[in-house]
Amino acid sequence: MLRAFGEVENALTSEQRLREQIVHVSARRSILQRSLNLARDRYRGGYASYLDALDAQRNLFAVELNAITVREQQLNALVRVWASLGGGWGDRTIADRSALPR
């Protein structure tokens, strides 16, 4: 019984931590998007090389990949929460879903 409570607590804590990370990654993404826009404007104005715009784009892409990874981890943590609370899926549930129209 205590093990089950521990599993639920760990899964909920992990999900909360990942939710906080998503907020930080989203803020960083916004900053890097603005940086990309400024780099493109500087290039169009002739004040910087296109390499600066490419560098800003690469940084934004890396953060977007990180955001996807963190979101995946958060969804996996939610699955662990669900599983530690008893699940609710099984062979019967999977079979029922296969009959649903797509």
UniProtKB/TrEMBL annotation:
Keywords: Plasmid. InterPro entries: MdtP/NodT-like, OMP_efflux. GO terms for molecular function: efflux transmembrane transporter activity. It holds the Pfam family OEP. Belongs to the outer membrane factor (OMF) (TC 1.B.17) family. This is RND transporter. It comes from Sphingobium cloacae. The lineage of its organism: Bacteria, Pseudomonadati, Pseudomonadota, Alphaproteobacteria, Sphingomonadales.
